[in-house]
Amino acid sequence: MNPKPSMKLPILYSGLIVGLISSIPFISFINCFCCAGVLLGGFLGVFFYKSSFTPDTPPFTSSECMLVGLGAGILGAVVSTLLSSLFTAIFGNIAAQYLAGALERSNLPNADLIVEKLREAVNEPVTALRFMGSLFFSCLVFGIFGLLGGLIGYTIYKPKGLSPMPPPPPFRQV
Amino acid sequence: MLVVTPVLAPHAADAAAFGYRLMSYICHQDPHRSFFVGGYPMAACIRCTSIYFAFFAGALFSPFLGPRLSINARIWWAVASVPMLADVVLDVAGWHASTAVTRMMTGSLFGLLGGLILVPVLTEALVQRFGNRNPTLEKCT
After folding, report:
1. Is residue A171 classed exposed, middle or buried when 0-12, 13-18 and 19+ CB atoms within 10 A define those classes?
2. ipTM above threshold 0.95
3. Chain B contact for A35, CB < 8 A?
4. The whole model's pTM is what?
5. Mean pLDDT per 10-residue interval, chain A, length 174 residues
6. Contact A141 B74 (CB under 8 A)
7. Nearest CB to B26 within list A35, A169, A172
């Protein structure tokens, strides 16, 4: 039997995809839908990982897929935070400007709080503290959603014949 | 976080703004498409809120139904996601007006089936990774 392939390349590819999806203005709106971009990244990580298996290698497991998704999410968070800061420094917070404008035009009651918050976000400069806070929270959220994406990938691509849960240990009275 | 943020809004605006900001990473928070608590929008839209609450319900029922669904997970993922994607895509295309009810129903279906399918797999993955460290179970084996 061949040894299992490395997880590094699938994590790298899918992490870069997550980072790009989550940082490019307007394309990043996909994450407004329950972090769909990050879920997709975790899923793609498992797809890439699965593609590197041959019939001679032992089947992949759910814990490996979980780690691939988690890695893709965390790497994606780092790439996304770096690129978002770069885009914000160059172009300003285009997405927040767009959303604040749309909300202002909506004339909804109590929307002022959110509009004010978005306007603040538009005007805030990129500081080291803000960058670190954003990086920390992105790693947390993207890690969780990437992990879930990896597990979704496992449920779809898992090798046939594997039990969904490990059998319970045999019970012996002490 | 979803419910506490709007409750805090009239009493502690800074804390509420922080809550809205944290949740803005994962939801558009459009007040047009959100439930309101005490006159303030929840920290996520109706669809996301429905997904999270239904996922929690699915997680509770997953020990009973999850393993059965995991066997044909592809089919169940299709059942879970097609109505929600259709609601989004047809709304964007202008062929169907997505309403609060359709967002809630399709989001709940996705969240419920997602919780039922994923929680057993997550448990399996964690057991594989970290082993069974329950001393009571170890004693039995």
Report:
1. exposed
2. no
3. yes
4. 0.81
5. 85 94 82 84 94 86 93 94 85 70 66 68 73 88 93 88 56 61
6. no
7. A35
